[in-house]
Specification:
By secondary structure, this protein is α/β, with parallel strands linked by helices. It has helices at residues 10-25, 63-68, 121-124, 131-143, 163-180, 206-216, 308-327, 364-378, 386-391, and strands at residues 2-6, 34-39, 43-45, 59-61, 72-75, 77-82, 87-91, 97-101, 104-107, 111-113, 125-126, 155-159, 187-192, 219-222, 226-230, 233-236, 241-243, 246-249, 253-255, 272-273, 286-288, 293-294, 340-344, 350-354, 359-363. It comes from Bradyrhizobium amphicarpaeae.
Length: 401
Amino acid sequence: MRIVIIGAGFAGMYAALSAARLRDIQGASPDKLEIALVAPEPTLVVRPRLYEPNPETLTAPLQDVLKSIDVVYVKGHAEAIDTRSKVVEVAGAQGTRKKLSYDRLVVATGSRLFRPNVPGLAEHGFSVDQLDDAVALDRHLHGLSSRQASKARNTVVVAGGGFTGIEAATEVPSRLRKILGKEAQLRVVIVDRNEAIAPDMGAGPRPVIEEALRKLGIETRLGVGVTSLDKSGVTLSNGEHIECETVIWAAGMRAAPLTAQIPAERDQFGRLLVDRDLRVPSVSGVFATGDAARAACDDVGNYALMSCQHATRMGAFAGNNAAAELLGVPTRPYHQKAYVTCLDLGEAGALFTRGWERTVEMVGDVAKKTKQEINTVWIYPPKAERAAALASADPERVTAL
């Protein structure tokens, strides 16, 4: 028997850990139940930190962890899924292809930045979505020091006033001062089509965010969108043109395209609809997790967000349940009633809220210390020691926060 997990992000990593944990508990050998993880590299990209400088350092190796728990790493890109034959086709180096059969499939392919067909976006826009994107932005920012000083050079427009856009925008001033000098006259503008900043955060935390933006001198353009980009800057839907040499696109996420190959119902973000065990109900033997799945967190209408906080725990349940079905033991319904947010606000500190109502618990430097601990400790993989690694993946106890 074989479980195939596609993806080495937070959900895929914990799916592998959790499946291996249950296999170990049930006394099944790796020969009886093989667990294979498919990914281009055996590396976790610490995606929540890609708004920070030096993004090339924001990865964590997984090879030793996977070896310690007897998970087979398959190098390559999963390019095709045949759910009738239960086969995944993996494209490897130099055009090689491999077909990998499965008894259970865990789709943990994550999400991608939504890039609409805005003129000039592909040519002139940057992002902090994937590792390569963040590295390209970092190189561009450092390259600004070799350009002639101007208002355009010193201006950054961030398209998107949600979580990612705010973290990217509030980090920019300190990043650019280190590159261009402390005396550089910087301008950062957040553009969002919503009438309020951080629309998903609600009214409670918003004054803290607005005060942080004022403190950092960050402007907002609300109720408008970016309609085009060119070498001179961006044009907004109200006709305003902002001269700038840096545009960071942070306007929404969609499930990775591979999920479209699963013949099942999806939501408006492309996420597969799953039951409480994280199965895709209409397709035999397929589970979806993390940003690839629309999953209920509780019985009162809250659904998992596209965040590592939810992906980590969802991954543990999906891996456990895929293994449980093959080992003939009960599955565990996914639930995640506890929910917090910790929003980085750059040199203005951070904001920590608890619950779906987002009750503010910490702000400023106190919240910043918590954010730094989350970013540097809590979300990293466990150590490559078998007992500790397996113990870290108990679905009922897993949390990224």
